[in-house]
């Protein structure tokens, strides 16, 4: 029997994941969708023969086996809590919650339920290049790590994007990734503001985050959200005896009239296409088999949100901010 999935939020990534579940992956079908934009939800549902239900009804509907949350970040926690209360597996796009307190409520609810039901959409952990980089690090190829340099560049962002979004919506990916890469928590954060780009409007763009990890490694993260030229994700680790970096990912290189050119992805859909496929395939297969999901869990979601809240404070105050993390509940040890 294929897994019956209800999708909440039929915007950009909601439709991407519905396309993936409907036409790329096997073993699942999207049987219900929900969006505060009724007209949009209706159109998406009609195209795949699904029902439209209000979000909380979708979660408790007996025909829905598992839930995929793709609505705006501020709405995630409420839906995740409803899915835990209904005892249903739930894949929540990042961020898990927009406040540390809401993340903590999810940890408490899932701990009380006694089994992990939540996975968070930090897809970089499924990306071939990030996985290869982690393999080199774990093998000790470059010796003990000292620093990591990261850049996260969006060509453009919508006009409603705020300075806080540059951290909570964009840098949160690197926050999760470095925790996973080095297997340790982030203890303190600073955010520096260089001269703003003339393309940035009112945004303090770019930003430079300095993340202090518990193992002594420092990670610097450039966030640019009006880079113009394309979607560009970089990462390089400096070790005691070498360096390892994400490779160039283009499938083609053109040599012509004295120049070598390779295409640059337009946005996250193109750059992480394969990672999203692997991420959702593993989630569907595990849930169908009745297993416990192995991807980023509610603790990872809580930790990323808590660090991101500290970074927002660091941006606003210009100060170094220590991360105040709760003790890790037994369910996530
Ligand atoms: N993992 C990734 O790389 C990645 C990529 C893109 C987006 N995202 C995340 O996915 C989420 C959605 O992003 P998007 O780019 O698709 O945004 P979007 O604005 O295109 O779509 C969000 C949709 O959610 C709907 N919505 C808002 N509140 C709702 C509610 N309470 N109930 C039901 N629907 C509601 C909106 O009407 C909209 O259609 C965000 O949290 C974002 O950070 C993750
Ligand atoms: O929601 C998107 C998504 O998470 C992308 O992966 C990230 O690069 C963007 O900055 C963000 O706006």
TrEMBL record:
<comment type="function">
    <text>Involved in the oxidation of myo-inositol (MI) to 2-keto-myo-inositol (2KMI or 2-inosose).</text>
</comment>
<dbReference type="GO" id="GO:0050112">
    <property type="term" value="F:inositol 2-dehydrogenase (NAD+) activity"/>
</dbReference>
<dbReference type="InterPro" id="IPR050424">
    <property type="entry name" value="Gfo-Idh-MocA_inositol_DH"/>
</dbReference>
<protein>
    <recommendedName>
        <fullName>Inositol 2-dehydrogenase</fullName>
        <ecNumber>1.1.1.18</ecNumber>
    </recommendedName>
</protein>
<keyword id="KW-0520">NAD</keyword>
<dbReference type="Pfam" id="PF01408">
    <property type="entry name" value="GFO_IDH_MocA"/>
</dbReference>
<dbReference type="InterPro" id="IPR036291">
    <property type="entry name" value="NAD(P)-bd_dom_sf"/>
</dbReference>
<dbReference type="InterPro" id="IPR004104">
    <property type="entry name" value="Gfo/Idh/MocA-like_OxRdtase_C"/>
</dbReference>
<feature type="domain" description="Gfo/Idh/MocA-like oxidoreductase C-terminal">
    <location>
        <begin position="134"/>
        <end position="323"/>
    </location>
</feature>
<dbReference type="GO" id="GO:0000166">
    <property type="term" value="F:nucleotide binding"/>
</dbReference>
<dbReference type="InterPro" id="IPR000683">
    <property type="entry name" value="Gfo/Idh/MocA-like_OxRdtase_N"/>
</dbReference>
<keyword id="KW-0560">Oxidoreductase</keyword>
<comment type="similarity">
    <text>Belongs to the Gfo/Idh/MocA family.</text>
</comment>
<dbReference type="Pfam" id="PF02894">
    <property type="entry name" value="GFO_IDH_MocA_C"/>
</dbReference>
<dbReference type="GO" id="GO:0019310">
    <property type="term" value="P:inositol catabolic process"/>
</dbReference>
<dbReference type="InterPro" id="IPR023794">
    <property type="entry name" value="MI/DCI_dehydrogenase"/>
</dbReference>
<comment type="subunit">
    <text>Homotetramer.</text>
</comment>
<feature type="domain" description="Gfo/Idh/MocA-like oxidoreductase N-terminal">
    <location>
        <begin position="4"/>
        <end position="122"/>
    </location>
</feature>
């Amino acid at each position: 029997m294929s897994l019956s999935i209800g999708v909440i939020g039929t915007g950009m990534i909601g439709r991407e994941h519905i396309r993936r579940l409907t036409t790329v992956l096997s073993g699942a079908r999207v049987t219900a969708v929900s969006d505060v934009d009724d007209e949009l939800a209706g159109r998406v549902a009609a195209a795949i023969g699904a029902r439209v239900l209000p979000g909380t009804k979708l979660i408790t509907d007996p025909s829905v086996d598992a839930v995929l949350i793709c609505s705006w970040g501020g709405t995630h926690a409420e839906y995740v809590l409803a899915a835990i209360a209904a005892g249903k597996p739930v894949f929540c796009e990042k961020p898990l919650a927009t406040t540390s307190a809401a993340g903590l409520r999810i940890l408490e609810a899932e701990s009380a339920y006694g089994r992990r039901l939540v996975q968070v959409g930090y897809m970089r952990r499924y990306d071939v290049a990030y996985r290869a980089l982690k393999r080199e690090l774990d093998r000790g190829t470059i010796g003990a790590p000292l620093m990591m340099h990261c850049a996260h560049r969006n060509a453009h962002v919508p006009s409603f994007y705020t300075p806080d979004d540059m951290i909570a919506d964009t840098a949160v990916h690197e926050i999760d990734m470095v925790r996973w890469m080095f297997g340790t928590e982030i203890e303190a954060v600073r955010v520096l503001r260089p001269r703003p780009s003339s393309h940035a409007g009112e945004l303090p763009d770019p930003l430079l985050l300095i993340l202090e990890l518990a193992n002594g490694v420092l990670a610097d993260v450039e966030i640019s959200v009006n880079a113009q030229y394309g979607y560009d994700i970089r990462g390089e680790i400096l070790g005691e005896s070498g360096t390892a970096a994400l490779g160039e990912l283009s499938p083609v290189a053109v040599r012509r009239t004295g120049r070598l050119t390779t295409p640059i992805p337009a946005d996250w859909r193109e750059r992480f296409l394969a990672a999203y496929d692997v991420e959702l395939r593993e989630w569907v297969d595990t849930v169908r088999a009745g297993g416990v999901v192995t991807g980023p869990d509610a603790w990872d979601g809580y930790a990323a949100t808590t660090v991101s809240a500290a970074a927002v404070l660091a941006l606003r105050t210009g100060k170094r901010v220590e991360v105040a993390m709760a003790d890790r509940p037994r369910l996530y040890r």
